[in-house]
């Protein structure tokens, strides 16, 4: 059998590693296709834009990672999936046949959803935009007005808080007297993890005298002026606004692949709702149990998809299921960091256990996690 994995991020790489180990001495073939030659460890990117890491330190060559577990790597762009024929079309019209397919091509920032956002904000999702953002941050000077926020539908708001607190720390370190304003579409600050986190973040922002606006929606962004749908406007000289996500272009070019704005509906087994031999993991999926998208969630999903494919290869039912969980660490600039956990409570009526802690320790944990993760993949 041939298993083809599309994408070399957290989802694709972890599916490949898990399946590669399980199928090491079998005749099954595993191929991973990605358009870039390396894995990008995105959690390091906020450090890169504030000059605390080099971009090269956040990337690892995919061929070396995959070689160790006998997974073949093809560096090409996917242009179409033909599920009725079990085929993937790559650039140059190369055809790749599969028995099982794993779609892990992530989410692209959907800047076009909000008029003017693409032209008037900076970001750090890929190498190119990260470099441009770093250069622009180096130009920030006293008197500038900085706007940071999460626009509606962004599925990883944790990032916007990291950018906010890291920007505050950077300005203090560089002795730049610039103002910061924060906004989010969330009803409460990072309310996904619960009240304790929201109130801790509010307290920190109040102490720092950083104005913040909750439950607001961006209408449009003009050069140096943001408009909210409630009529408020914010002038700015530099902005970092995280957008909603959409799926990769080839998903839109695949008429037999059900999707919503390129995001693919999946069962809790990570099989797509439409095709039982096609799985999808990571930022590109839509499932009620995956509210907050993250590298951590992508890795958990990847392991479940790999287990289920392995079960199917043995003629068994793919029965492993994803349940809503979250584990994360976010940087809080001069305040250290915050670690949070959210997982189902099996012992009493409360549906979820939510825990969070803040200070120097979570910051050190995040640094240790970065070192460990990159060492593990090397
Ligand atoms: C700045 C930043 C900081 C973050 N910090 C954290 C954090 O601290 N902790 C955490 O858990 N999460 C964090 N996240 C979120 C995390 O990075 C994402 O959730 C994660 O990368 C999603 O993994 P993925 O495999 O779905 O997609 P991606 O990592 O986006 O990987 C997609 C892969 O698909 C490939 N691809 C895309 N289109 C095609 C195509 N047409 N053909 C071939 N290949 C294609 C890409 O080249 C890439 O290899 C952060 C995100 C950002 C942007």
Give me the secondary-structure topology.
Elements lengths: L1 E5 L3 H13 L6 E6 L3 E3 L4 H5 L9 E3 H6 L4 E4 L2 E5 L4 E4 L4 E3 L2 E4 L4 E2 L7 H4 L6 H12 L6 E6 L7 H17 L4 E6 L10 H13 L4 E2 L4 E5 L2 E4 L4 E3 L2 E5 L2 E2 L2 H4 L11 E2 L12 E3 L4 E2 L8 H19 L12 E6 L5 E8 L7 E8 H18 L1
Parallel strand pairs: 1-2, 1-9, 2-5, 9-20, 11-12, 11-17, 12-13, 19-21
Antiparallel strand pairs: 3-4, 6-7, 7-8, 10-18, 14-15, 15-16, 22-23, 23-24
Helix pairs in contact: 1-9
The structure holds flavin-adenine dinucleotide.
Distance between the first and last residues' Cα? 28 Å
- Write down the domain tally: 2
Bound molecules: flavin-adenine dinucleotide
| Overall CATH class of the largest domain | Alpha Beta
Structural class category: alpha/beta
Shape label: globular
Mean pLDDT: 94
- The helix content is 25-40%
Q: What share of the residues does DSSP label as strand, in percent?
A: 25-35%
> What is the β-strand count?
24
